[in-house]
Specification:
The complex is a heterodimer of chains A (169) and B (215). Chain A is mainly alpha-helical and 169 residues long. Chain A is built from seven helices and three strands. The radius of gyration of chain A is 52 Å and the shape is rod-shaped. By secondary structure, chain B is an all-alpha fold. Chain B is elongated and about 60 Å long. The chains are: A mainly alpha (169), B mainly alpha (215).
């Protein structure tokens, strides 16, 4: 880029209206031509700050250290990821608690159901309360040897006891 | 611009697109667990990223910390990398966000330090040479002090566009805003920095500018 072109493009550069190709050429000239740079910085002091970053220069020592550090961190990250995949103690405890809860629950439900069945049988097997008070004779067929006692007769249960009257006497 | 210069700029453009394609291939390999491919990306981009990030945070050593963390994040999030973006843009976005987070986390500590009376630490001495012979380290020192007066977005936009020379579209993609917003940030940043340079570092300005300011 010629100095004349550079100086004519300063306003467009500051307005950010140059296309990227021209902008690149302007910046290159600004770095490379001390006279134009001095002229430009006099017009716009902030252009001085472009020198803070030398184009193409790299801190190679820093880069090498960075590569080594990042590689080490990646390996550490992979190792940490593998460790995390193993179940943590609290996860194992929670799983055990869930299994125990389900097992106890199933056992309790089974015990509860069998208890009802026994209770029902007891009702039929146990001696009726009416025996102490004397069962009510529901029906008797004289000469036929049949006497039917009503031992219990409510909404849920009805029990009759059939006997031979001769056995009772 | 002469024809030969235009051709040179276009040739550079073609090689940049080739580089972007190479980066996508390396990123695809790294996504499958290829550490060597990722190390190649680190070697390729860490220098440029450090130059940008160090100027945003205002410190070279912290800049390297941010760069390393940015690459680690990039490794962990490779499954989220969209190959429609260039890898460099995606990486710069991660690095810039980390740098901005660092600036913000320092913000409250800096306010406490400055509460007793602001003074500018002049680590850069009076120049013995005219401004056209300044070393980049000296100018970097000036910039590190001056960017403290910018907001994180202004700082990032100015460094990426004006110092590192990224395309307007790239800067907008890195910062997650529109090119117009980037332009506004830079305009505001120039206004603030111009005043700061004239007030605090007049000796670095050409005599023509100093005479103009004196008037």
């Amino acid at each position: 880029m010629q100095c004349e072109d550079f100086r004519s493009q300063l306003e467009d550069y500051l307005a950010d209206s140059l296309n990227e190709d021209l902008r690149g050429g302007f910046r290159q000239h600004l770095r490379g031509c001390p006279q134009c740079r001095q002229w430009a910085v006099a017009a716009e002091p902030t252009l001085l700050l472009m020198l803070a970053s030398p184009e193409g220069e790299t801190d190679q020592v820093g880069v090498d250290r960075c590569v080594a550090s990042v590689s080490a961190m990646i390996r550490q990250d992979k190792l940490t990821g593998r460790i995390r995949r193993r179940p943590r103690p609290w996860q194992l405890a929670a799983a055990a608690a869930a299994v125990l809860f389900v097992t106890v629950g199933v056992w309790w439900m089974n015990e509860d159901a069998s208890g009802i069945a026994v209770h029902t049988e007891e009702l039929t097997v146990s001696e009726p309360q009416a025996v102490e008070e004397g069962p009510e004779v529901e029906f008797q067929m004289d000469g036929e040897g049949v006497r039917i006692y009503r031992l219990a007769d409510d909404e849920e249960t009805a029990v009759w006891f059939v006997v031979n009257p001769e056995l009772e006497s | 611009m002469r024809v030969t210069e235009v051709c040179l700029v276009r040739a550079i453009g073609r090689s940049r697109s080739q580089m972007a394609t190479d980066d996508r291939e390396l990123a695809a390999a790294a996504r499958k667990g290829d550490e060597e491919a990722f190390a190649s990306l680190v070697k390729k981009h860490s220098g440029g990223l450090h130059r940008a990030v160090a100027r945003i945070v205002g410190d070279d050593a912290e800049g390297w910390d941010v760069v390393q963390l940015a690459f680690l994040r990039a490794w962990q999030r490779l499954d989220r990398y969209d190959s429609r973006w260039s890898f460099a843009t995606w990486l710069y976005r991660i690095g810039t966000n980390l740098a901005i987070d660092l600036i913000r986390s320092r913000g409250s500590r800096e306010k406490a330090h400055q509460a007793g009376g602001a003074h500018i630490l002049r680590v850069v001495g009076r120049p013995s040479t005219p401004s056209d012979e300044l070393a980049h380290g000296e100018v970097a020192g000036i910039l590190d002090q001056l960017v403290e007066s910018l907001s994180p977005q202004q700082r990032s936009a100015f460094v990426l566009r004006e110092i590192e020379g990224l395309d307007s579209a790239e800067v907008a993609a890195v910062l997650g805003c529109s090119p117009t917003t980037v332009r506004n940030h830079i305009f505001q940043a120039r206004k603030i920095l111009r005043k700061k340079i004239e007030d605090q570092f007049p000796e670095y300005l050409p005599s023509a500018r100093r005479d103009h300011n004196a008037v």
